[in-house]
Amino acid sequence: MKTGKATEENGPATGSGNENAHLFHFTGWKAGTEMSATEKSKINQVIFEMSKDSKYFQQAQRNDEKTREKIQQFRRKIEVPRQSDLRSVTATVDRLMKDFEDSRDLSQIFCVVDMDMFFAAVEIRDRPELKNKPVAVGGMSMISTANYEARKYGVRSAMPGFIAKKLCPHLIFVKSDFAKYKKVNKVFTDIFKEYDPNLRSMSLDEAVLNITEYVEGQLLLKKAAQALKNNGSSKRHGITVKERYSMAESVVNEMRNRVYEKTKLTCSAGIGPFKTIAKIASDFNKPNGQHLVLGDRNTAMSFIRKLPIRKVPGIGKVQEKILQDAFNIHTVEEIYKNRYLVYHLLTPVTAKFLLRISMGCGSNNSGDDEDSAANKSVSLERTFREIREFSLMCEKLHDISHTLAKQLESKKMKGKTVTLKLKTSNFQVRNKQTSLKRYVGWKGEDLFNIALPLMRSLKPESLRLMGIKVSGLIDVSSADSRKVTVAIPRDNTQHFISEFLRNNRQLSENKNDITPNSSKVDLLVDTIIPCPVCAVKLDSSLGNDKINQHIDLCLNNGLLTELGKADENLPTRAKKKSKRSLRDYF
After folding, report:
1. What is the spatial distance between Cα 6 and Cα 14, in angstroms, rounded to a whole number?
2. What is the pLDDT of residue 306?
3. What does the alpha-carbon distance between residue 64 and residue 138 come to, in Å, rounded to a whole number?
4. Residue 427 near residue 64 (C-beta atoms within 8 A)
5. Pairwise CA distance, residues 46 & 273, whole Å
6. pLDDT tens-digit map of 91-129
7. pLDDT of 426-467, one tens digit each?
8. Range with the poorest average pLDDT among 215-224, 259-268, 455-464
9. With a threshold of 0.70, does the pTM exceed it?
10. Is 243 a catalytic residue?
11. How many CA within 13 A on the CB side of residue 224?
């Protein structure tokens, strides 16, 4: 059923709260919000009545209309599927599923820890009089976090405070204090790092840990203690999956207890062989609980395929609606059953993501699947009351630029692509990006000067949200940014080296010495110059042969990393350091 639009042409919005609930991102399920269908219906109706005349609702309806058009397009394609079309993707999908099956690695143990109602819990801890009362951190314009007492009334994070107050008249608002939250975050993060020094924080209240090494270390200590107890004799056998995960459960329980002892705050955790599974599991026993998914194929597959698609991180309300209304897919298992159709009609990226999930597979590192900085980004957004003066917009942009620069510096990351995101008072989102020839990120003024022309070009009349994203990142944690570069395509090698030599005025008069298939260059001038591939400084007095050997090594290796000198005479590639990075759980 279509909902009427709240526009001059169509009159006021129509329909019920339940019919329009999908238009609001704060009406979904969240821990502590278990309630009957009747209660949900009443809450949805209140939200609808208080929002139906707002600009937000009008924009949400426009977006929903676009989604419905997409659904109709998919339905038309599904109604008359050509067997030839499906046959053309069958082999591809089968091969893809086999690749997922063959590459499944169950050797790691991941833990996702989520602090329970973090901001609200900190405030209630510091103000005992708030205990057992409905509390929300934020104000009438927006709520950051609500405690479980408030959630019983339908109050959610990211909900406007005036709607929350209507749902729960006796709701108590507490002003946010992010400086305090960051201090508390450091306390429990220091505890987490004892279990995984390379953990990745998703936010102030959530972290992903790979506890494999710690668990295996504890198991070895346990077996050694048993051997001593048995006068040095012990049975020689491998460690079973159940033993590993039993120890993991004990380790995570110990970690959670230590966090409570230090902070008087509770946290929930999920344990599993992949980040995705651990993330989903972390929601199962909230608050102050943990859930384990055993790291074997059948258990992982059974766990993931029973899930409603909305439970999968990365599937939002729009994607859920398309899958349900167009494909009649409601569970992960149904994704697998409709895998050929999914791959045929959806984009390759979306289809591969969904099919991978349907196989119970996930990433085995705390970062991107490819461990590629190019796939990552660091962003910062700010929501505020409507502003119309350009000078105030510039102040917001300046503040965001400098705060983001500090975040990038703390992460030891720089990037070459900057994207500006603006949301108008009509809730229309506009983006504009620019790609740079150099890496930036640690200087707030640099980001500001890059983003300001983008904002001018968009000519905003009024704003309520602003954000900056830096992508195409490099990790400069152990190397100067000038010594880190991007991979050079093989077919562009000659051009790249030629440009390098031309820019440094080191090319001999006879430039034809560089042939298309050659990776060697004659350097005639006695000076210090950077390698054209890795940017490490080379002394031309080393001689052409040794310098060419170094360049050959860089080019033949094909991957760029930090470089160092292996000896006094010949700089060689240093060993690649193991590093982890974090993307959206896949």
Report:
1. 8
2. 92
3. 28
4. no
5. 42
6. 899 999 999 998 888 999 999 999 999 999 999 999 999
7. 888 899 999 998 888 888 899 999 999 999 999 999 998 999
8. 215-224
9. no
10. no
11. 6
Which amino acid, 581?
Answer: S
Reported as half-sphere exposure (CB side, CA atoms, 13 A), residue 152 has a value of 9
The beta-strand segments (E) located in 521-562 are 528-530, 537-539
Better pLDDT: 49 or 581: 49
Cα gap 174→437, rounded to integer Å: 45
The tokens for 211 are 């506890």
Separation of alpha carbons 203 and 181, rounded Å: 11
E strand or H helix that includes residue 268: strand 267-272
**Strand locations in 330-448 (E):** 377-387, 413-423, 429-440
Q: At what angle do helices 55-79 and 317-327 cross, to 10 degrees?
A: 30
Which is the catalytic residue, given 19, 39, 49, 206? 206
- d(CA 72, CA 283) in angstroms, rounded, equals 34
Environment class of residue 485 by beta-carbon count within 10 Å: exposed (0-12), middle (13-18) or buried (19+)? middle
Cα–Cα distance for residue pair 303/293, rounded to 1 Å: 7
Burial 329-349, CB ≥16 within 10 A → b, else e: bebbbbbbebbbbbbbbbeee
Q: Residue 328 has which token pair?
A: 């009649």
Task: Match 């050659």 to its residue by tokens.
Answer: 518
Kindly state the tokens that stand for 90. Answer: 């069958």
Q: How many whole angstroms separate alpha carbon 264 and alpha carbon 248?
A: 23
The 10 Å Cβ neighbour count of residue 552 is 13
CA 132 – CA 338 distance, rounded (Å): 47
Which two three-digit tokens encode residue 394? 């510039």
